[in-house]
Amino acid sequence: MFEFDQFWVSALAGATPPTASNLDGWKAPPGVPTGFIEPTFSVIAGDPAVAKIFIVSAPGAVGKSTVASALASVAGYALVDLAKTTPMGGNFFKGGLANAFGFDALPRAANGEIGLIIDGLDEAQLRAAPAAFEAALVDLGDIVASEHALPTVLLGRALSAENAALILELAGHNVCTFQIEFFDDDQARRYIQTKCSSLAERHEKLREAYLNHSNVFHALAEETRNHLAAVSGGADPRFSGYAPVLDAICEFSLDPEQQNPSVRLASLYGDTPVELVEAVSQAILVREQGKLLSQLIAAAPQLEEGELTSLYGPDEQRHRVLSRILGVAAPAMPPIAESSAQDAYAEMVEQFIAQHPFLDGGARRATNLVFSADLAVWALTGGKLRDEVRAALNRDPSLLSGLLFELYAEKLGSAAAPALPLADAGILYQALQAQVGAKQRALIDVSSNEDDEISVSFEVTDQDRPDLERSFGPYNSTNDTALELRAPFSHVYVDAPIWVALGDGNSQQIGSPTEIRSRELSISARQLFVHGASGLEPDGKIVTLAADDVDVQSVQNITVNGALLSVVWNGSNIHPWNPYSADVSSAPSPDMDFMRRRLRKILTSFRSHSKGKLVRFAPKIDSLRMTKDARGEKLVSALLNDGILDLFDNGKFYVLDPDKMGSLLGVDYHALQQQRYTNEVDAYLQDVLAR
């Protein structure tokens, strides 16, 4: 229904392609990317028949930038890559048009001669303050609002796309939001054929083998994908229709030395899609080891088999590839007794690493997000280059993906899994954010029990479909590292004696709902921006920051828009925090303190349902993480008996009745989030303890 030739060409018709640009990030139509496979578009909100602004959202690495290039080319539009432009701000698009394409470009845009395809909303939001991001979008809306102006298209990940849509709608523009779907079976098949052909061009031997046996390579790649789809959960398009996974499958299939599909498939073991994706990466590494060792044996036949098997193994390859990507010293060569063999090995390693399948040619980056995730998880969970990889991931969020989260979570689920470092928990949260689709949210919850043992949980919630909620954990953690959050975030819940470190030295954006109660809080940012959730979530206004010790002296300015900010720490009543400083009364007894915390933990965990209810999966409320002990269990029973909570959908969900909560406890949802306890609350909790 929304194919290029049936919708987009008609919707964007009329542009005269601009000439070469004079400004970084602003481009004339770049041409349709080689091997482009058109994805499926679905409408999330709005009416495409009347909209003049189209916003296209998708999880990371689904192909937004490729779609942007293709749309710009078929429509004759200019392409604006916000990852390469200056940061967004007021007059960004009007000034950008003039500086890129000449002083007459702005009137030409108003008259319908120049149209814009704008890619990289998420990168732009990372680099710009919320007010600047909004000002730039309003500036764009002014251009599009001209009677004869062409429609415009913006592309970004789900959260930035939703924020952009909300800003433009509030400014009075007709907006239609689309989502790019993962590839279906036919699209995946065509993508595999195109990708195999492209990869085969890298080396002469592979090119020749592919020309002679392309059908064999295609068959192996398709059988590998079918193998993935056949395991439990493998048919989920997040795996079987995800371009980076298909890229890895193609790389696995392209081996000129071994073209027997049954032999290759036999090397893949796993009962889950994540295990099979891991197996694909491992098989490629084993293949590369075999190729090097076969040459080494020919050059140094005197080497013993035991000595050979320790050379160029998967871990050594990962270490060497990561060293190149990070620009750090490569690991030392393993010792080989025979000096001539040592020299031959060193020479071969340099040759093989330079052309490694995990490396994107001469560039210092991984070939795709599967290999990037494999390398990152190996480093984070194995200790080699751990600090360097953490720094790189915090510095460049584009390296993060849902695959990184899934691979790491798979290791955390193993019987011998070590504790999850808090330094990695922040990275995993941001990686999970990269996976969410439209109307979904990623959530992290860091809690402690009465013995101060730390646990970390992650969730993906869906505004319209609570039954699609996915959860991970709780995972045991330790408080010997900081929970670091640098990129914009929301839906962060911390109630534990840990160190939370926010900010990148310049700014920090915090979206609601967020609740951080920690032992130590540091904010490295001159500007703090706190904003409300997009949409009308009844639980989405509160941001609470509380800590025993703080380092927040670098914060010079605080902007709050559409949210309620509360800060709780000694000395919070000074500039610039004093407008948001909150007094919290202490509990009259340790038991009452426990019950207050449990009540707040349980009731504020409820999330908005599309029909206006606040709901939560019953197992989440019943878990020990919520109830802690018998006192907490008594509290849940009392809340059910008194009608504050109720069960629905055959006991699958709890639903919260805010009116009953208000009448019996004398407190509303937001007051409870802010720890504004009433006499009615304490009386109710005292009665529960006495039951």
Write the layout of secondary structure elements.
Layout: H1 4-11, E1 26-27, E2 41-45, E3 53-57, H2 64-75, E4 78-81, H3 92-101, H4 105-110, E5 116-119, H5 121-127, H6 130-144, E6 152-156, H7 158-170, E7 175-180, H8 185-199, H9 204-230, H10 237-240, H11 243-253, H12 261-265, H13 273-299, H14 305-308, H15 314-326, H16 339-354, H17 369-382, H18 386-395, H19 402-412, E8 420-421, H20 422-433, E9 440-448, E10 454-462, E11 470-478, E12 483-485, E13 492-502, E14 507-511, E15 514-523, E16 527-531, E17 542-551, E18 557-561, E19 564-568, H21 590-603, E20 607-608, E21 614-617, H22 618-622, H23 624-627, H24 630-641, E22 645-648, E23 653-656, H25 658-665, H26 669-673, H27 679-690
Parallel strand pairs: 3-6, 3-7, 4-5, 5-6, 8-11, 9-13, 12-13, 13-15, 14-16, 15-17, 16-18, 17-19
Antiparallel strand pairs: 1-4, 2-7, 9-10, 10-11, 20-21, 21-23, 22-23
Walk me through this protein's architecture.
With 691 residues, this protein is α/β, with parallel strands linked by helices. The protein has 4 domains: 4-180, Rossmann fold, CATH 3.40.50; 184-266, no CATH class; 436-583, no CATH class; 585-691, no CATH class. It is built from 27 helices and 23 strands. Strands 8, 9, 10, 11, 12, 13, 15, 17 and 19 form a 9-stranded mixed beta sheet that branches. Strands 1-4-5-6-3-7-2 form a 7-stranded mixed beta sheet, sandwiched between helices. Strands 20-21-23-22 form a 4-stranded antiparallel beta sheet. Helix 9 packs across helix 11 and helix 19 (402-412) crosses helix 20 (422-433). The longest helix has 27 residues, at 204-230.
